[in-house]
């Protein structure tokens, strides 16, 4: 892959407007109706309270009834999940938690489209890689490699451009408990803009991997799609692996780590070389563990996290159903139990107010404890944020914190220099 001279790193005006319109559309979907509904419900709720002068006990935090209570209670910072949060951050945290819980109750079958749609020329359809690149855990009698979609940011690179040696291409894998989300602008526009603005990144490819519970979405479908996309960058676009960064948030971080493990086990640097490094944002490191909703609800950070136990439990149940948990499978679904010698460095980023915070710290320590990994693991905590700051940052008002995480990721890459070039 090459980069034409004079091409600016930032998005063009037209591309920026396109991304902004999509983000604004998503913002309206999230926020246009809820404030009106909450306001009306709040009035009704407190009219029914009559002459009561004190705040009643809150309803269950995944019930719609919590919304009018929160709309009034959070006017005082002492009633918020975390007193340093703004009113908006506290209220949106509750709205998201209720929304995710209700979304799960619908039990909708995930679906994704392979048509360009809004993304137009930025959308790419990636064909499966050569058969010899799928082996071991990536082989399955029922689940086969299929074409997979992806969205480029800020634009789709041409085949006749050059990539400066100090710049990189990020292959990002989105979160969503393996049951929601995609790689398109509505899901990944915010994180892509942060990468392009605050890290040495020229292009970002966000993959639209198959979701569990959908047709042909059974594991290892997601790993197969990740292999296809990574191979596309190396073999079709001829991007050096030393200029590719793997990235993932939440479930996508689990998948990114799974791909890194697969590359290590494939053990052929000519066919499948390791990337420059891997960014893991709020990684899902123990999928079977998410089935225990009681443990999630009893976490000291449950109140400050925006993810309800039902959401991760639903994703885990669908991902693990009809799946025999052999050692090879458990390495991918519960990587915290199976550290391995890393082929290139990883950065683990967590939120100080998320349920998985302690698990992320333990995960980083376990991997770093291996002698081969001592200098290959870095860990950063965004102290005031809940789960997956890049997914909720623009919604809840954590843009500053998201930028800080992106800057840390950029500094991590720059520190590597040529010391871990593959």
Automatic annotation (TrEMBL):
The chain crosses the membrane at residues 27-48. GO terms for molecular function: hydrolase activity. Residues 170-390 form the Alpha/beta hydrolase fold-3 domain. One of its GO terms (biological process) is antibiotic biosynthetic process. The active site is at residue 250. Keywords: Hydrolase, Membrane, Transmembrane, Transmembrane helix. Belongs to the 'GDXG' lipolytic enzyme family. The keyword Membrane applies. InterPro entries: AB_hydrolase_3, AB_hydrolase_fold, GDXG_lipolytic_enzyme, Lipase_GDXG_put_SER_AS. PROSITE patterns: LIPASE_GDXG_SER. SUPFAM superfamilies: alpha/beta-Hydrolases (SSF53474). This is Alpha/beta hydrolase fold-3 domain-containing protein.
């Amino acid at each position: 892959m090459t980069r034409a001279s004079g091409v600016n790193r930032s998005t063009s005006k037209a591309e920026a407007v396109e991304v902004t319109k999509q983000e604004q559309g998503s913002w309206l979907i999230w926020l246009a109706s809820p404030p009106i509904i909450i306001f009306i419900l709040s009035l009704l709720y407190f009219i029914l309270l009559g002459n009561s002068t004190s705040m009643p006990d809150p309803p269950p935090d995944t019930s719609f009834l919590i919304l009018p209570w929160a709309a009034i209670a959070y006017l005082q910072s002492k009633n918020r999940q975390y007193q340093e949060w703004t009113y908006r951050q506290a209220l949106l945290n509750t709205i998201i938690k209720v929304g995710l819980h209700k979304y799960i109750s619908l039990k909708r079958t995930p679906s994704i489209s392979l048509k360009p749609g809004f993304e137009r020329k930025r959308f790419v359809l990636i064909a499966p890689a050569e058969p010899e690149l799928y082996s071991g855990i990536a082989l399955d009698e029922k689940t086969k490699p299929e074409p997979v979609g992806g969205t480029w940011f800020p634009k789709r690179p041409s085949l006749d451009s050059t990539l400066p040696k100090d710049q990189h291409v990020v292959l990002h894998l989105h979160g969503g408990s393996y049951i929601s989300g995609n790689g398109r602008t509505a899901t990944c526009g915010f994180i892509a803009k942060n990468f392009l603005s605050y890290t040495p990144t020229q292009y970002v490819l966000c993959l639209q991997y198959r979701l569990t519970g959908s047709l042909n979405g059974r594991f290892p479908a997601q790993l197969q799609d990740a292999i296809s996309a990574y191979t596309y960058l190396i073999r079709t676009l001829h991007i050096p692996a030393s200029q590719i960064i793997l990235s993932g948030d939440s479930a996508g971080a689990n998948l990114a780590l799974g791909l890194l493990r697969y590359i290590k086990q494939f053990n052929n640097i000519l066919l499948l070389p390791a990337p420059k490094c891997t960014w893991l944002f709020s990684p899902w490191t123990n999928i079977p563990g998410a089935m225990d909703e009681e443990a999630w609800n009893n976490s000291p950070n449950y109140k400050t996290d925006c993810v309800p136990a039902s959401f991760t439990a639903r994703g885990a149940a669908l991902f693990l159903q009809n799946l025999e948990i052999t050692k090879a499978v458990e390495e991918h679904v519960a990587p915290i139990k199976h550290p391995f010698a890393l082929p290139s460095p990883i950065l683990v980023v967590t939120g100080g107010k998320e349920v998985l915070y302690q698990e992320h710290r333990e995960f980083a320590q376990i991997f770093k404890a291996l002698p081969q990994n001592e200098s290959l693991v870095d860990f950063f905590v965004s102290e005031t944020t809940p789960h997956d700051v890049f997914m909720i940052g623009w919604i809840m008002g954590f843009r500053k914190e998201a930028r800080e995480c992106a800057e840390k990721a950029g500094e991590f890459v720059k520190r590597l220099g040529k010391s871990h070039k593959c």
